[in-house]
Structure formats: structure tokens, C-alpha cells
Amino acid sequence: MPKVTVVQVIYNNRPFIEPVFSAIFSQTYKDFEVVAVISGNNDGGKELLAQKFSQVKIIDPGYNIGFAKGHNLVFAQSSSEFFQLVNPDLILEPDYIEKMLKVFDDPKVGAATGKLYQWDFTMGTIVKHDGSHCALDTTGVVIAKSGRAWDRGQHEEDRGQYDKYTSIQAVSAAGAMYRRTALHATRYPLPAKTEYFDEDFHSYWEDVDLTWRMTKAGWECVYQPKAVAYHGRGAGSSHGGYLHIINFIRHHKALNPRIRQLNYKNHIFMYIKNSPWFYPQFFVREFFMFFYILFFEIGTLKVLPEFFKQLPLIWQKRVWFKNHTTSGRPIF
Fold first, then answer.
1. Could you read off the pLDDT of 118-133 as tens digits, one per residue?
2. Predicted TM-score (pTM) of this structure
């Protein structure tokens, strides 16, 4: 069995297949296999992948399986020591996997991310500010007591401010690498299956939820600045966040309604499952968020029946993890 399994869940991503998989197979590290899970194939991406990259193992469940469940299938079936996730719109530098593996020489490391830049697939170039400095996409994830989580450095000019290897609170799954034993130590055993990413999330925030659990269980999440990749990212944060309300509203309006619904539901679930305390900041933020949605995104509230249906199981998972994991370093 190869040491690394490279995993991608594809959802109608035909335009990205050739550049993304060409970068995967150009890696300096060679002891890996590649598995693609087809979550949507209305554009013929599966056929293109099979034609151009026949060495890829394709799993096609025949429906929109979602980011979480799609990856869980591979985690459960493969016995590789490490799993390298590659988003459908992520282009790796040739030494990305090689550089990522080096951080796992430390046995405490359970998950890691590299330095991801913003990439414009339309132009085929890296996004730059004023034509010079590259725009960052993520250097890890920051989580506040309010429950707000965001990609560290996103939209900032890269001036070397994130060139230091460091521990972080959580990682984005866009280009994350996970240790197999860390995944198994923080999985949730259901009667008929095992969850690594929480399948009640389907997509969005399942990555932060997973690495928050790892941290609580005593594993370390780290940022490796020497591993570089370029991310097209369909849904990131708005420029300036809440401080630039017009940008925030425009950004959210441009998102697919289902993405907004999953984002709203899952960020609350992530907090309920993992926060050691329900801090006052959380309730203040959710109060204002609810009224923002009520006035500007009323369609997002259509997710509430799904939210309340899943809530008891989410609470059950919180209790289970609290009783079955050792105490790691506090995240706040």
C-alpha cells in the first residue's frame, strides 16, 4: 500500500481536471495513489478523468455524496499512513507532498496545511495585489470564542508575514494532510459506519470540526509554509469581513443559496460539538447573525427544519467525544 493516498471529491469540475491532476502527478514524492470520488458528473468530468489520467482510482456512488461522506469512504477503505486532500480547484507545487510529509516526523502532528495562494482559473494566473504581491488564500484556520472561524491571512498580500512554521487551531481541508492514526483516534463510530468528517455537515465546516476534535484529543495541527499551492476557491470570506458590511452583503448574495444554508447550520453545529463552554460572545454573534439573515437572506432560514432534526445527534456526538477522548491543549 502506498504511504500517501491523495483524495479528491469531484462535483462537476471538468474545467479544473487537467491542470489539477497534472500537478498531482508531477509531484517529486512518488509513493502515493490517487482516488477520486464522483459527487456530480453533469459535465462529463468523470470521462475526461478516466481518459487523461487512467491511473486514478474512480469511485462513483451515483449521487451527490457530499464532501464529508465522499472523503470518509476513502479514509475507511485505504490503509495508507497519510491522506493528502486536494480540492478540485487546487494546484500543487511539485514538492507540496514532499514538504508536507516532513512535518509528520513529529509524532504529535495529526494534521497540516501548506501556504495556499489565491488562483484565477479564468486567467490561469495567481491573484496579485497591485500586480506585485501575491494574495493569500489560507495559512490555517483561526477560531474565536464567538464561534467565528476564518482562514488566516485570506485576501492579505504575502509579504512574508506567514513564513514561519507554527501550530494552528485548525486547518482548511483544501490542501490538508492527515495522519491515519489521528483520523482513527477522533472518529465517531455509528452503528452502520464510521465517521471521520461529520456527514451531518455534508459540506462546509466539516474540516474545522475534524481538526478541532483532533486538538481536543491531544493532536497538533501545524502550518508548513514551505508547501505551496494555488486555490481557486468558490466560497471564501468577504474582503474586510463584518467591518465592511456592503462587501459582506454582496459576497453572501453571490453565494449559492444551499451554500449559505449549510454555512449557517454547520458553523453552529461545529461550535456546539466542540466548544468547551458556550461563551457570551457566541450568543451575541448569533443574535446579530439571525437578524441579518432575517432581513437580507431570508431563504437561509429554510435550513431550520434540517437543523432541528439533526441537533439531537449533534449533541450526542458532543457528549460522546467528551467521554471518549483525552484532554489536549485548549484551543482558546
1. 988 776 677 766 556 7
2. 0.91
